[in-house]
From TrEMBL:
SUPFAM superfamilies: Chaperone J-domain, HSP40/DnaJ peptide-binding domain. Keywords: Chaperone. One of its GO terms (biological process) is protein refolding. The keyword rRNA-binding does not apply. Pfam families: DnaJ, DnaJ_C. The lineage of its organism: Bacteria, Bacillati, Actinomycetota, Actinomycetes, Candidatus Actinomarinidae. One of its GO terms (molecular function) is unfolded protein binding. InterPro entries: DnaJ_C (IPR002939), DnaJ_domain (IPR001623), DnaJ_domain_CS (IPR018253), HSP40/DnaJ_pept-bd (IPR008971), J_dom_sf (IPR036869). Gene3D superfamilies: DnaJ domain, Urease metallochaperone UreE, N-terminal domain. One of its GO terms (cellular component) is cytoplasm. Residues 9-74 form the J domain. This is MedDCM-OCT-S45-C3-cds6.
Length: 288
């Protein structure tokens, strides 16, 4: 559960009413994610920001349990319940709201134990495949990090927090996950983005090149005449979250011009230019 949910209207972000069904939410997300995907809007920071916002909104509203918690948080916050506002919340404040409703409504007066929080750091590959981590606490506690977890995600370990009073249940432990960036992969939800350089001859003549994925190498066919900035999609080679469909791998190529040309090589290029590119400028539209 994120502490800034009160400050964000995920329904407005996706453009759906609060009574929208899960299917309507997913449909709205797919449309907005497609329109604002960074690969389709290179260099557009506003589109990139919008894409992140709709992805976050979908991660909450597209999950029945998270959606219910989100609706509860906003209902309590909007009504001024108990005098709480969205400012200055701590993890324990949320614990007081959701875990001590017995006190508020008089259900026996038992108080659930305090909610604790800790942090773990894992690698990009560990986040993609899942891992079991021993927490750096006084007692040895293991937490299973599910495949596909993203940076900033929070895992709740029920009953691992502070002791409950007068026989009440123990509190919970919130584990916040920090994921280290990969040296060449970038992540967009469950999709991976990889930038790959091409030689001038590979782009001009076509080639078959080896591309790394998180688990293996695959061959990508580059058609002749491929322009710099072209993006190829390799299905199913993104991140595979637990119990869900795999993401895709998007390979964006850019051309590396030849350097340190010999005199002979320059003459061959000049001959090619004069024979095949004379009068054929790609910038003609700028003169219109």
């Amino acid at each position: 559960m994120s502490r800034d949910w009160l400050d964000k209207n995920f329904y407005a972000t996706l453009g759906v009413p609060q009574n929208a069904s899960i299917e309507e939410i997913k449909k709205a997300y797919k449309k907005l994610a497609r329109e604002n995907h960074p690969d389709l809007n290179p260099g557009d920071l506003e589109a990139e920001k919008k894409f992140k916002e709709v992805s976050e909104a979908h991660s909450v509203l597209g999950d029945e349990r998270k959606k219910q918690e989100y609706d509860q948080i906003r209902t309590m916050g909007a009504s001024g319940f108990g005098g709480f506002t969205s400012q200055g919340f701590t993890v324990d404040d949320f614990g007081d709201i959701f875990e001590n409703l017995g006190d508020i409504f008089g259900f026996g007066g038992r108080r659930k134990g305090q909610t604790y929080q800790t942090n773990i750091n894992i690698s990009f590959n560990e986040a993609a495949s899942g891992i079991e981590v021993v927490l750096p606490l006084e007692e040895s506690i293991k937490v299973k990090v599910p495949a596909g977890v993203d940076n900033g995600s929070v895992i709740r370990l029920r009953g691992r927090g502070g002791p409950g009073a007068a026989g009440a249940p123990d509190g919970d432990l919130l584990v916040q996950v920090s994921v280290e960036p990969h040296k060449f992969f970038k992540r967009s939800n469950m999709d991976l983005i990889l930038e790959v350089p091409l030689l001038f001859t590979e782009a001009a003549l076509g080639a078959s090149i080896k591309i790394p994925t998180l688990s293996k190498s695959v061959t990508l066919k580059i058609p002749s005449g491929t322009p710099s900035g072209k993006t190829f999609k390799i299905r199913g080679e993104g991140i595979t979250p637990q119990g869900r469909r795999s993401g895709d791998l998007y390979v964006k190529v850019f051309i590396i011009p030849p350097t340190n040309l010999s005199r002979s090589a320059k003459k061959h290029l000049e001959k090619f230019r004069d024979q095949f590119e004379s009068g054929d400028s790609p910038r003609k539209y700028l003169d219109e």
